[in-house]
Amino acid sequence: xxxxxxxxxxxxxxxxxxxxxxxxxxxxxxxxxxxxxxxxxxxxxxxxxxxxxxxxxxxxxxxxxxxxxxxxxxxxxxxxxxxxxxxxxxxxxxxxxxxxxxxxxxxxxxxxxxxxxxxxxxxxxxxxxxxxxxxxxxxxxxxxxxxxxxxxxxxxxxxxxxxxxxxxxxxxxxxxxxxxxxxxxxxxxxxxxxxxxxxxxxxxxxxxxxxxxxxxxxxxxxxxxxxxxxxxxxxxxxxxxxxxxxxxxxxxxxxxxxxxxxxxxxxxxxxxxxxxxxxxxxxxxxxxxxxxxxxxxxxxxxxxxxxxxxxxxxxxxxxxxxxxxxxxxxxxxxxxxxxxxxxxxxxxxxxxxxxxxxxxxxxxxxxxxxxxxxxxxxxxxxxxxxxxxxxxxxxxxxxxxxxxxxxxxxxxxxxxxxxxxxxxxxxxxxxxxxxxxxxxxxxxxxxxxxxxxxxxxxxxxxxxxxxxxxxxxxxxxxxxxxxxxxxxxxxxxxxxxxxxxxxxxxxxxxxxxxxxxxxxxxxxxxxxxxxxxxxxxxxxxxxxxxxxxxxxxxxxxxxxxxxxxxxxxxxxxxxxxxxxxxxxxxxxxxxxxxxxxxxxxxxxxxxxxxxxxxxxxxxxxxxxxxxxxxxxxxxxxxxxxxxxxxxxxxxxxxxxxxxxxxxxxxxxxxxxxxxxxxxxxxxxxxxxxxxxxxxxxxxxxxxxxxxxxxxxxxxxxxxxxxxxxxx
Length: 727
What we know:
Elements: E1 10-12, E2 23-25, E3 43-48, E4 54-63, E5 66-73, E6 86-88, H1 93-105, E7 107-111, E8 118-119, H2 122-125, E9 129-133, E10 140-144, E11 149-155, E12 163-167, E13 173-174, E14 179-185, E15 190-192, H3 227-236, E16 247-250, E17 262-264, E18 269-272, E19 279-288, E20 291-299, E21 303-307, E22 314-321, E23 327-332, E24 337-339, E25 348-350, E26 365-367, E27 370-372, E28 383-387, E29 392-395, E30 406-414, E31 421-427, E32 433-438, E33 444-448, E34 458-462, E35 473-480, E36 485-490, E37 493-494, E38 500-501, E39 511-514, E40 524-533, E41 562-564, E42 569-575, E43 585-588, E44 591-599, E45 604-609, E46 615-617, E47 621-622, E48 629-632, E49 645-650, E50 664-665, E51 681-684, E52 689-692, E53 701-702, E54 709-710, E55 717-724
Parallel strand pairs: 7-9, 8-10, 9-11, 10-12, 24-41
Antiparallel strand pairs: 1-6, 2-5, 3-4, 3-6, 4-5, 11-14, 12-13, 14-15, 16-19, 17-18, 18-21, 19-20, 22-23, 22-44, 25-40, 26-29, 27-28, 28-40, 29-39, 30-35, 30-40, 31-32, 31-39, 32-33, 33-34, 35-36, 36-37, 36-38, 41-42, 42-43, 44-45, 46-55, 47-55, 48-52, 49-50, 49-55, 51-52, 53-54
């Protein structure tokens, strides 16, 4: 509803009206002096007789000289008026209020369709918001009366033409289609209050110091990246460029400059130093469209008594990234794998729970082994039935028990204990390796060979404890590298007669057999839950409670983590393999291994911090005599290493090389005759490199003065080793 105004609108009543009449007539022909009213429009009029009686009325419709009225407006009362009573359109208080309210917020939708200019009436122009619509077919002007006023103008027209909003005189403003702006007529020209101070929506150009909301950390959409967001991302370590991936880049050092952020804590706990020297860790996350994906965590506070570590064992210490500044610390007995492909043969879990499928995906051949769930070892499960004459399960996928700790275990329920029956046998073609069996005297006998030609470690030593027929018995054969001993447990109790000192590892083998030795000594009865673990599960002969459920590959710390060198991602095993030859489910995780800790029953007894950046340079070392082994503790933590480089540093001038300032030379692998091989040898494991000097005097090197070969004097030199991780 819009108030309407008109100048000099006055007349007289053509007839008398009562105090409640809702229509009146003015003098014939004078109705046109008053505003025309559309639906919803109105104006105020005042009735005043000769006695100065007044009433303000609201006229809501006019048909020629007949007015439709609402009586008693603005505090006046409906009165009876006679013929010739004056009626005038006056500027009343309510008229003024309605008009200014219209100026402040009224809204007009006006079609300007076509190709000709459109002039707004003063009433139309009085609206504060004007929305112009319709299809325009030429450039047009929308013209308003000359009066100082302000509008919000919306151009909702269609058609590829311009619309200019202007007064009758002066310059106008082009309002682009599908835009809105604020315009004001200053008495001379139309001015735009928005455009001079704002950028266009399309490809805006900002000046000064514009602001925008800062997106949340790690936001990855089309939001504007403010300087605050960029600074947070740069300092966060996400997608950082790092010199070496998947390692500890830097931290606390010992007096020789080697890594030392891990140390023994109270009891079976460990400490992490990061306050005096922040610890910087990089976690590899594979590759993306822009290249390497790496995150860096920088820890600046010590962490005391983390753990708890497994007693009397070798523990691998790791961190799991939480944020840019925090991690969770952990440990595991399972040594991590590093390689180009996941090595399924490093571990096995053959539950025989109604299947002969290995949870790690290793291939086994089942010969005549059936399954039953009647009286199993573990409630609600199945077990394998071995008939004692042909039944066996065999795999040729396995070739080694590894170079560290290992465990072979299962539960057995023999039908009879009156004959020799092999249970687990890992042997080569000559019948040597590691195995355990039931003897004809109902005992357990164990075997182990390091040479591959004789059972030199232990050869058939029998237990004192007897095995009972038709009874489930837990058996566990393990090598404890901390104690340097083989232990055998029967129902969780170490068999003292079978405890064997072993300094050499078990030889390689060609088959891993369950239920026979490859040709004979077939087991009769039931077997369940066979496991091969790449660590000593129960060390030092300590009694333990046998397991009450089948192993789960997803249990924390059970399976080794795997770092894929091609993918540059660390994975954890989270579900069993579905079929032979298929890996278990591997799930990416942000984990870095920091070192190793060896414990006794109550404390940490030794600590290995892995080398920062996976790089090692030894201290200068005296050159040994012939056929002498020198061991370097590189502590890189992996066996996939680049070829070691040996350098010689001159301490006393020799073969034309001046000692000052300790020049370096790279010796050739030849002897004094100039053609005899030097015959040096390398032996590398994850933390140590052993270098054995040759058997032919010393190496030769080119003299600095003339380039000719010279035979250096070993006493004038010291050697050093350079080694780094391959990936």
